[in-house]
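Please, structure for the following, as tokens.
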Amino acid sequence: MRSEFVDEIEQMIPTLRRFAHSLARNAADADDLLQDTLERSLGRSHQFEAGTNLKAWLFTIMRNRFYTECRRRQRVRDHAEERRFGAADGEERVMGDQFARVETQEIARAFGMLTGEERSLLIMATVEELPYETIAQMLEVEIGTVKSRVSRVRAKLRRIQEETGDIALARVGISSKPVRTHLSAGTA
């Protein structure tokens, strides 16, 4: 393995540690994430193209590892919840799951109408809860630029949701907008 590659990675450890803490939100998980990232990057050093952005490559590995771990933990939680509630809750659980699915579909549809860049920015700012400073460094822009972009993307997402009118939720009797019927059209 190239010693200069290892030296460059070693110099990135403090930056990677901060990024891991911003993702994991606790020291133990952040340390595990950092270690996993270092192991993967060293084990896959042949995949790194010399002259490209090492920081971006390492951040991508770390972010992907974090997402994978989150999905794994969610599957474990879902499985544990299913075992805890079982079939005894019957219809109440089914209805709750249906509403949650409908809400998820509404958000997913609106989210899918954003551009890839907008989705990525919103994920970093809201799902990953990365500090604006970190996002600005990753995107190589000013913090104010990140703040205004996130604000515009959030506003766009709200507009999309308002324009789609919560169609799926209205079908099951829930809507954030009043449903106009022939009785509410002025006849009393």
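Residues 24 and 97 are 28 Å apart (CA to CA). The chain is about 75% helix and 0% strand.
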